Amino acid sequence: MQRLRATEAAALADGHGTSEELERKVRHAAVAARADYIVQAMPAPLRAALELAYFQRRDYRQTAAALDVTEDEARRRLRLGLQLLSTAHDSGTPGAPPGYGGAA
């Protein structure tokens, strides 16, 4: 994050880009870093369900079969994993209405 901010600040000082672009890039990188941390820290069963659903494009039924759990359990794992990931989203998006785009 600090490296990105320093690189972009140098580009801004040279007349390339705007401060708004710099802040947007930094916010985007921060959200990505938080999401990566959340995925790495989440319990293995939730992470496995999300990886099957996202990377292998499996629906909850296929995910349940692959993990040898019930469909209800697969849906629960996917829902909880997505809820955890949603907290990574930057709730301070400029111009967004109050309460938009982040966990409360």
Automatic annotation (TrEMBL):
Query: Keyword Protein transport, does the record have it?
Result: no
Q: Name one GO molecular function term.
A: DNA binding
The answer on whether this UniProt entry bears the keyword Transcription regulation reads: yes
Sorted alphabetically, the Gene Ontology BP terms of this entry are: DNA-templated transcription initiation
Q: Which Pfam families match?
A: Sigma70_r4_2
| Keywords, sorted A to Z | Sigma factor, Transcription, Transcription regulation
In this chain the RNA polymerase sigma factor 70 region 4 type domain maps to 38-85
Per its UniProt record, what InterPro entries does this chain match? RNA_pol_sigma70_r4_t2, RNA_pol_sigma_r3/r4-like, WH-like_DNA-bd_sf
Family that this chain belongs to: Belongs to the sigma-70 factor family. ECF subfamily.
Name listed for the protein in its UniProt record? RNA polymerase sigma factor 70 region 4 type 2 domain-containing protein
UniProt organism field: Streptomyces glaucescens
